[in-house]
Write a structure and sequence with these properties.
The chain is mainly α and 121 residues long. Helices cover 62% and strands 8% of the residues. It has a three-stranded parallel β-sheet with strand order 1-2-3. The chain contains six helices and three strands; from the N terminus they run βααβααβαα. α1 packs across α2 (21-34), α1 runs parallel beside α3 (45-58) and α3 packs antiparallel against α4 (60-71). It has helices at 6-14, 21-34, 45-58, 60-71, 83-96, 100-111; strands spanning 2-3, 40-43, 76-79. It has a domain at 2-79. The radius of gyration is 15 Å and the shape is globular.
Length: 121
């Protein structure tokens, strides 16, 4: 199962599919997830990232709509953020100096690597 970060949801919205290869690849991957061809999971904090970027780029109403779409995205499993994940994120943050939210994503993926609902490849 793939761990999906917010950029996969944002690329097809923000960029022209014909002009930015990542936008097209992201859209294609999202379609495969929605159809059930690819199993995927993400941290619940991905909602925050998608809504925040949408609000900054396009305003309140589009961010509300994208937030709703994200929360009802077909075949996407949501992973909770709990204290053990934040503790691991702190370690990643200290060791690698990555952004805090990226550390949370990494810790979420690591914490769930043996989760039967989100076995990472």
């Amino acid at each position: 199962m793939l761990y999906i970060d917010s950029n996969i949801f944002l690329y097809p919205i923000i960029y022209e599919l014909g002009a930015v290869e990542e936008a097209k690849r992201s859209r294609d991957l999202l379609l495969r997830i929605a159809l059930g061809d690819v199993e995927a999971c993400t941290s619940i904090i991905t909602w925050y990232e998608v809504v925040w970027v949408m609000r900054r780029a396009f305003g309140l109403e589009p961010s509300i709509e994208q937030g709703k779409r994200f929360l009802t995205f077909p075949n996407l499993k949501f992973l909770a953020v709990k204290k053990s994940i934040i503790l691991r994120a702190q370690e990643i943050f200290e060791k690698y100096g990555v952004k805090p939210r990226d550390a949370i994503h990494a810790a979420t993926a690591m914490e769930n690597k043996n989760n039967k609902h989100c076995k990472l490849r």
